[in-house]
Amino acid sequence: MRPEPSRSYQVRKILRRFHVQSGSEAVVAAVLLASYPLLFVIAALPTDTADRLPWCWTFLAVVTASYLAEACAPRVTPYLVGTLNWLQVGILLRWVFREVALLILLARALPLTPLEFAAFALGLVGLHAIRAAHSALAIYVSRRRQLPVITRNVDLGSLRIPDPPPRLFAVAHVKTILYLDALPVAGGLAAVLTAGFGWALAGAGLALAAGLACCVIMAGHARRNRHLGDGTRVLATVHERIREYRPEVVLYFSGSIDSAYQANMWLSTLAQLTRPAMIIMRERGLVPLLGRTGLPVVCIDDLVDLMNFSLPSMRVALFPANTAKNLHMLRVPGIGHVFIGHGDSDKAASFNPYTKVYDEVWVAGQAGRDRYLRAQVGVRDEDIAEVGRPQLTGIRPAGDRPADRVFTVLYAPTWEGWLADECQTSLTAMGPRIIKALLAHQPRLRVIYKPHPLTGTRDPRATRAHQQIVALIEQVNRQQDAGGSGPPEQGEPGRLAAAADLSRIGAQLNGLAGGAPAQGWAAWLRPQADAATLSRDSRPGTDGDAEWRQLTDAWHAAYWRSQEPWRHRVVTGPLPTLYDCFDHADLLISDISSVVADFIASGKPYAVANPDGRDGAEFRAEFPTAAAAYLLDADCAALPDVIAQATGPDPDRLAGARRELKGYLLGPDHPDALTRFNDAVEALAARAAHPAGPARAAHPAEPSHAAHPAGTARAAQPAESTPAAHPAGAETAPGAAAAAEGPAVRAVSGA
Length: 751
Prior knowledge:
CATH class of the largest domain: Alpha Beta
Strand content: 5-15%
Number of domains: 5
Largest sheet: 8 strands, mixed
Radius of gyration: 32 Å
Helix content: 40-55%
């Protein structure tokens, strides 16, 4: 017979059902749920004015607790707050409960006339009417400020966009007026304590006056923002400014919030093109996450608005990702559509059949071309151009490591992918095992752990493995701090100064990026920057590119100096960047992903996880980026030998293979990748501008085919396919004016 579960176990089970995990959460949840019934009970207990005082003080204590619980609950127990809202016991109804309890207390404890009682009750009702009016004005202003287009580096001075309302009146507009009922509640309690009903009327009057003042303030903001409701004018203004700029190259990007890095990696390259370029985005939430750039940025989320945003000067559209909304730009005739991706790898995403809808596919090197030909997904050889990876120009090569630096291993696993069949991550199968082996290695080394931004998106096991790795690293760091087992302390004042610099530079970067909201009570009285404000203030020439780069470089330098050189790092944010981690690593451990192909540019040794224990020759044949890699099985038995090879005085045994593989994956060093990329843009733009010209010859950016590393034979040319880039009958907007400039781009490309 199973033992009866203990009462404490049953209580914990109930708390877990409400997602209550800690003591503080339990206290807030208990006060929030119990305070309102208690108020009704306490309010009904006084029988006359003689016994009112004890119950009044008790009521005051409980009502204070209810206010504090309401203030803390959204942050401490959001699940409980959401559940109450779902049960139609939201914040408005809970406030009414408190006020009704106060009315009951007044009626029981004081000899009120019907007129006095009605006056106070009407004051509370009037406060709710004022709250409704204030919320209506706040919503009106908010909707007026939701422009149909968000911009950066576009002059919107003619739109006269005003400052937004203070955060107190706009963001938290419901609670702003609701909390004013503290005045009549305090006045009502003072009336009970002193037997003077004037206190109650004074509290209600002050609350009504304050509420009316808030409405007057919001009415002024509503009047100043009224003209922004003309979306057609806003779009026309932005359209006119962009047409004056005459962009010929556009980076078109659509994706999830976590995918902003896919566009950010191309910003520097785009800014260095000889033809004017711009960026078109489709999701508003991505705009604040876009990196610094001096190029015009336009975010249009509505399809009809995008269709009417014609740009006759546009010649080339670059696509960093395959997403459904790409179709909205692919339907535009007269321009060349190019898939540039966000990194070359051997994962299935790098030869997606969707890619055949583009006019051209630009890859880093011969490996990318062979990958498409082997996959036979309909991408023709003549539509592939090898342009290198311009982002890798500044990566520090092997041999540029300071002699006194602790040997550093970078573990950068990929994510689990959208489909289980495409999962290439080592995180779930062997990630914690890799980290344990690295942390236990002697002589001691330093670990940098940088997971993929999308880690845990699909598979909760990846999230758990990530959390386990973070806990392991933090535990070892704490042990070394407590035991003094790290190397002798040197330069402690310098590290303290670097930590101070890190905080200061971070604040400057936040300011340039639009500014983090001010902290403390003052933040509630200041305007809350919104998309309209950022669009207004980001004018041409104000983006601060040079200052941003200088501050970013200074931040990176301070970051690595701010802690002991032996301390293990967990890097999950945008800074430090992956490429900066490359510069501070001596060995990479990763998966089949673009991280491996990019790391090849450094010439340093790398290991690729082989969690299924496949035969090495078979593994390298399927994944050419692993041709010069050390392979790690799930038991990590080969890891000590890999580290020994990487730390030896002479080049490791795969150094020559890496040099050969670099040319195959990334193309030749001369001309450099930026030159090849720019030449490819120039060639495609010229063909788009003169579609009736001769058929497309070999792409000017394509080098002669590099020698293939061992085990990577070039696949035979697949049978040609002719995908329709623009289905018959497709409409011509946006870019209706461009339709007259040439037929569909498949012809422009010389296909």
